[in-house]
């Protein structure tokens, strides 16, 4: 009887799959903070790197996935993937019901709202959830981490040590070819 009840409960428990999409070019401590919060909230979390050649990313999709893999391996319910095309189509294929986006200052909100409403229009069953990283990360962005590193500044505390190392390597080899 008890067992039967348990089975029914399990069947009714809808596993909430969330996708945290982004460029992650490169991964920052702000992304990690948001990913950790999302991993605690949802049954399964997919960190999804976008194929965005038009944005001229510094790191390849494979490199960005490797950086994310280090984070994912700390959690039993987090995996890393990549996608191209419409995010909502990818989310539907993955049976995900939630899109995670991190917002920092109010300045992020306008673009994020526009994107969330467009995604809702395209696929009304998928909800966007905004998470705020800790205030220590509120000014960290991939763009600034890249710029500081390119100009020889110290990015420790803003991105994992392995990312800082990859950045130094990138900019060292860029200088050699200049
Ligand atoms: O880290 P980013 O660059 O802010 O991430 C932006 C991302 C990848 C979430 C966004 O560009 C995206 O969803 N791209 C896929 C194409 C798409 O679905 N566009 C319509 C949404 S408005």
Task: Please state the CA-atom Rg, rounded to the nearest Å.
Answer: 18 Å
**What is the mean predicted local confidence, pLDDT?**
92
Question: How much of the sequence is in beta strands?
Answer: 15-25%
Which sheet architecture does the biggest sheet show?
5 strands, parallel
Helix content estimate: 40-55%
Q: What is the 3D shape?
A: globular
| Tally of alpha and pi helices | 7
Spatial order of the strands in the main sheet?
3-2-1-4-5
Hetero groups: 4'-phosphopantetheine
Structural class: alpha/beta
Low-pLDDT parts are none
Number of strands: 5
What's the order of the H and E elements?
Answer: HEHEHEHEHEHH
Report, as a whole number of angstroms, the end-to-end distance. Answer: 73 Å
Topology:
Blueprint: H1 2-12, E1 17-22, H2 29-41, E2 44-50, H3 61-72, E3 78-83, H4 87-93, E4 98-102, H5 106-122, E5 127-131, H6 142-150, H7 161-177
Parallel strand pairs: 1-2, 1-4, 2-3, 4-5
This protein binds 4'-phosphopantetheine (PNS).
Structure in words:
- The chain has seven helices and five strands, in the order H-E-H-E-H-E-H-E-H-E-H-H.
- The protein is of the alpha/beta class and 178 residues long.
- The mean pLDDT is 92.
- It starts with a helix and ends with a helix.
- The radius of gyration is 18 Å and the shape is globular.
- It has a five-stranded parallel sheet, sandwiched between helices.
- 4'-phosphopantetheine binds at residues 21-23, 50, 86-87, 115, 118-119.
């Amino acid at each position: 009887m008890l067992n039967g009840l348990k089975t029914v409960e399990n069947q009714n428990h809808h596993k909430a799959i969330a996708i945290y999409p982004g460029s992650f070019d490169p991964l920052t401590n702000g992304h990690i903070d948001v990913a950790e919060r999302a991993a605690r909230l949802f049954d399964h979390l997919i960190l999804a790197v976008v194929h965005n050649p038009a944005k001229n990313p510094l790191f390849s999709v494979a490199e960005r996935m490797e950086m994310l893999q280090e984070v994912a391996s700390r959690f039993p319910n987090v995996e890393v993937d990549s996608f191209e095309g419409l995010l909502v189509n990818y989310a539907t294929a993955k049976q995900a019901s939630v899109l995670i986006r991190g917002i920092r200052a109010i300045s992020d909100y306008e673009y994020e709202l526009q994107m969330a409403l467009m995604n809702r229009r395209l696929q009304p069953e998928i909800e966007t959830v905004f998470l705020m990283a800790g205030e220590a990360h509120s000014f960290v962005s991939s763009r600034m981490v890249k710029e500081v590193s390119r100009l020889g500044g110290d990015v420790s505390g803003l991105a994992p040590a392995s990312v800082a190392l990859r950045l130094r390597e990138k900019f060292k080899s860029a200088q050699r070819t200049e």
